[in-house]
Design a protein that fits this description.
6-stranded antiparallel β-sheet, alpha+beta
């Protein structure tokens, strides 16, 4: 029997167990995949042939092709005759989408979404006592990071999200857009959006301002904004989707658990990007766990404590000079480093 992976998966697993217990012949039945795009090429509508590694705990839960095609979410199937009594725990997002699937062998499949569609699949497993993670992007999302702040050919800023007249940075430039794309590719999943140059994504709800950089007060004093020498990471332009959260490899120490108030985790780097002696503090970390993946380390997802509200989720990232741990709130402003300076020359 085959079944796609929609949000109704939990009900189907109940049916699987009932079917296996009471109707052995139903193993050979099949169910059609969920709706696929009528304009999709014929190859996209062909069910995937997957091998599920239920018995071998040293392998990821399922073997995936290196190249995932569009409409993958409606073609992800599993043959019932490969299973005895598979025991999975299924976690859902607030929107009713499948967030992750875990098995009794401490393996997991995690799904990253953009606008309700799967853009990447990550698997985590343990082999020879080494924790491993690998991510498979869906074709078309390998390097896709959306531009924000009404850059490019979008309409000019409207009255609702006007840039303050006392802003020290009056416009969002192409160089800033390139910088934000680069930072999103370092710290986020395939569809992540970074805001590291004082400008939020324009798609955020109206209560969130477009500009959060430095301003000059009536007294002539320059004051830092929330995104002055700091960055936000979102799952999409609207700040409504989830995304995996990463840091670069190379840290020599890190905090063991997120803080209880803002779910903050710190990482110390003797060398990071262009600079030496840098601490990275990541706030609002959800599902914290250290898992190496190529030249990055997945540490969880965005939207942890303090960073997730109705229709809004993000993580906040700051860079400090020195091995600071998490500095007291009042000391952070003077220790912050511009994220663009850390990785200058890469965009």
């Amino acid at each position: 029997m085959r079944r796609t992976l929609p949000s109704r998966l939990s009900l189907f697993f109940v049916l699987i167990l009932l079917c296996r217990l009471f109707i052995p012949g139903c193993v050979h039945a099949s169910l059609s995949p969920l709706e696929t795009s009528p304009n999709a090429p014929s190859e996209v509508k062909t069910p995937l042939t997957l091998s599920w590694n239920v018995a071998n705990k040293q392998l990821p839960l399922v073997d995936l092709p290196e190249r995932l095609l569009p409409d993958f979410d409606s073609r992800f199937t599993y043959p019932l005759d490969q299973f005895g009594f598979p025991l999975f725990h299924i976690n859902y997002t607030n929107d009713g989408l499948i967030d992750s699937i875990d098995d009794s062998g401490d393996r997991s499949i995690n799904f990253d979404y953009s606008l309700g569609h799967i853009v990447s699949v990550s698997q985590t497993w343990t082999s020879a006592a080494i924790r491993k993670t690998k991510t498979w992007p869906v074709k078309g999302y390998e390097t896709q990071v959306f531009e924000h702040a009404n850059f490019s050919n979008s309409p000019a800023f409207g009255a609702v999200k006007a840039i303050p007249k006392n802003a020290t940075t009056p416009s969002y430039t192409r160089q800033m857009a390139n910088c934000d794309r680069m930072l999103a590719s370092i710290f986020g999943g395939p569809a992540a959006v970074a805001a590291a140059n004082g400008f939020e994504p324009a798609g955020l709800a109206n209560q969130y301002p477009i500009y959060r950089g430095d301003v000059v007060g009536d007294d002539g004093v320059r004051r830092r904004g929330h995104l002055s020498y700091a960055m936000h990471l979102y799952g999409n332009q609207n700040g409504t989707e989830d995304t995996a959260l990463y840091v670069p490899i190379g840290f020599t120490s890190h905090s063991n658990q997120p803080t209880p108030t803002d779910a903050a985790v710190t990482f110390y780097y003797p060398h990071l990007g262009n600079l030496n002696n840098v601490t990275v503090a990541v706030f609002h970390v959800a599902k914290f766990a250290i898992s190496y993946e190529g030249d990055r380390v997945r540490i969880g997802s965005i939207g942890g404590r303090g960073g997730s509200y109705a229709f809004y989720k993000h993580s906040h990232i700051e860079f400090y000079r020195g091995n600071t741990g998490l500095p007291p709130g009042g000391a952070r402003e003077n220790l912050r480093i511009d994220p663009a300076a850390v990785f200058a020359g890469r965009f």
